[in-house]
């Protein structure tokens, strides 16, 4: 759906990359441009993982200083590092000395009782002085005591003006904003105050909002806006190209459960994928058969409406 949108991996820890048995840096070349998001706080481990990421062809390596889960906090990385800007700064220095690709930071505007103005400014200044010039800011605090990770994505109030003021105060930095942004119209509005917008939950729940992003946001006059049907057919081809023996159609299909969000047949699409995509004998033509079910339902609705009219 987009050739220009920068994609971020899920957060992967340095321990998993260095000591894990799986390939935690795997991705598909069609995902470029793509950034790997690292969780860690040891400068040497972060530098090693950044170097491995560059060797694998990633376009950017990002330090996660925003995840609020207890497991992350106990591992001394994620949002708790907001209170330790010197640690993040040391990681930035070590990583930049190891790689040529950009080293960026994703953070919150604070945690717990941190001051959203003074403490947040000190964090940005400390990390920027270490050489980081790009920050992706989730515009709400993280409460590490009393709120679950899910609640931390919804309950603390959004403070967009604080991120806008950061850009005004540090115009030389690239500042992107994250949190609660659901439409391309809202994205355009935010881009009047910041350099970039990260969209997370909404693009997962309703991925078709990306269909016109290259034209509407990036100004690519030659960009094609694919129909949902065209997206399904291309995703089916993508599935068929996978050579990993452990790959299953569900691994891709589960990420587009929301493709028909708000459309006739949307519930049928989700139900068909969920019921037929898992289990020991998954349907190899999962997407095509789900598409047939949706389009059949849509024809019935269209026929009913025509008769009613």
UniProtKB/TrEMBL annotation:
PROSITE patterns: UPF0034. One of its GO terms (molecular function) is tRNA-dihydrouridine20a synthase activity. Keywords: Flavoprotein, FMN, NADP, Oxidoreductase, RNA-binding, tRNA processing, tRNA-binding. It is an enzyme of class 1 (oxidoreductase). Its EC number is 1.3.1.91. It catalyses: 5,6-dihydrouridine(20a) in tRNA + NADP(+) = uridine(20a) in tRNA + NADPH + H(+); 5,6-dihydrouridine(20) in tRNA + NAD(+) = uridine(20) in tRNA + NADH + H(+); 5,6-dihydrouridine(20) in tRNA + NADP(+) = uridine(20) in tRNA + NADPH + H(+); 5,6-dihydrouridine(20a) in tRNA + NAD(+) = uridine(20a) in tRNA + NADH + H(+). InterPro entries: Aldolase_TIM, DUS-like_FMN-bd, DusA, tRNA_hU_synthase_CS. FMN binds at residues 37, 106, 138, 178-180, 200-201. Residues 2-292 form the DUS-like FMN-binding domain. The record marks 64, 150, 153, 267, 270 as: Interacts with tRNA. The active site is at residue 67. Pfam families: Dus. Its cofactor is FMN. Belongs to the Dus family. DusA subfamily. Catalyzes the synthesis of 5,6-dihydrouridine (D), a modified base found in the D-loop of most tRNAs, via the reduction of the C5-C6 double bond in target uridines. Specifically modifies U20 and U20a in tRNAs. NCBIfam families: PRK11815.1, yjbN. This is tRNA-dihydrouridine(20/20a) synthase. It comes from Alteromonas mediterranea (strain DSM 17117 / CIP 110805 / LMG 28347 / Deep ecotype). The lineage of its organism: Bacteria, Pseudomonadati, Pseudomonadota, Gammaproteobacteria, Alteromonadales.
